[in-house]
Write a structure and sequence with these properties.
By secondary structure, this protein is α+β, with helices and mostly antiparallel strands. Helices cover 33% and strands 18% of the residues.
C-alpha cells in the first residue's frame, strides 16, 4: 500500500525566523559583564580596606609599645620634680594637684602642643621629626590648694597594710608615706595613629 507523503511546496521554509530575538544574547552578555566588573571592583576595594585597617592596627600596636618610654622617662624625672617643684606646676610636664579628666580618663587641662616629645630611644626631639613621638605629663593625686600640708587628707596615698611588723622594737607604720602620681603618656605614630596610656607611680 502506498502512503501519500506530505506535499512539498518549493520556496517555503519549514521554520520561520524570529526577528524579535536577534541581539538578545548580546544584551544579556553585556549585562553579565557589567555585573562581573562591579563584583571585581567591590572585591578589590574590600581587600584594600582590609589592608589599610590591618596596617593601622599594626601602627597603633607599635605606638602602644612605645608608651613604655614615656612611663620610664616620667619615673626618672619624678625624684627631681619632688625635690625641687613638689607644690608648683611645671608647664608641659607636671601638675602639683589632681586634674579633671574626660570620659576616657585623660586630664583635660593638658595642652599637648606644649609638651616635649621624645623618640623611641628616649631622646628629646622636635615633635613630628621621628616616626613615633612620645609625650608624658605627671599630675600629683592631691587636691588643692597648694602647698598641700595635710597629705593624708588631701592626697591618694599608699597606706601600708598590717601596721608594720609585730616584732619588739620594730617600726610601726601609723601614717601613709607614699603619694600616688598619675602619668599620662601620648604616643603619635604614622598615619596619625595615637595611643594613650596611663600609669600610677608612688614616691
Amino acid at each position: 500500500m502506498n502512503i501519500p507523503s506530505a506535499p512539498v511546496f518549493p520556496g517555503r521554509c519549514r521554520h520561520t525566523p524570529r526577528a524579535g530575538q536577534q541581539g538578545v544574547v548580546l544584551f544579556i552578555a553585556l549585562i553579565a559583564l557589567v555585573v562581573l566588573t562591579l563584583a571585581g571592583i567591590a572585591l578589590v576595594r574590600s581587600v584594600d580596606t582590609s589592608n589599610v585597617i590591618s596596617g593601622n592596627l599594626a601602627f597603633k600596636q607599635s605606638a602602644l609599645e612605645s608608651s613604655d618610654i614615656g612611663v620610664e622617662a616620667a619615673f626618672n624625672a619624678l625624684p627631681t620634680i619632688i625635690s625641687t617643684s613638689l607644690d608648683q606646676d611645671i608647664a608641659g610636664q607636671y601638675f602639683a594637684t589632681i586634674q579633671p579628666v574626660d570620659s576616657n580618663g585623660v586630664p583635660t587641662t593638658i595642652n599637648w602642643s606644649n609638651v616635649p616629645c621624645r623618640d623611641t630611644a628616649g631622646n628629646v626631639v622636635t615633635c613630628g621629626s621621628s616616626s613615633y613621638s612620645v609625650q608624658y605629663v605627671i599630675d600629683r593625686m592631691c587636691n588643692g590648694p597648694t602647698p598641700v600640708t595635710n597629705v593624708q587628707a588631701s592626697c591618694v596615698t599608699d597606706v601600708p597594710l598590717g601596721g608594720g611588723s609585730k616584732k619588739a622594737g620594730a617600726v610601726v607604720f601609723s601614717s601613709a608615706t607614699a603619694v600616688y602620681y598619675r602619668v599620662t603618656v601620648r604616643v603619635t605614630g604614622p598615619r596619625n595613629t595615637v595611643s594613650m596610656v596611663q600609669a600610677m607611680l608612688t614616691h
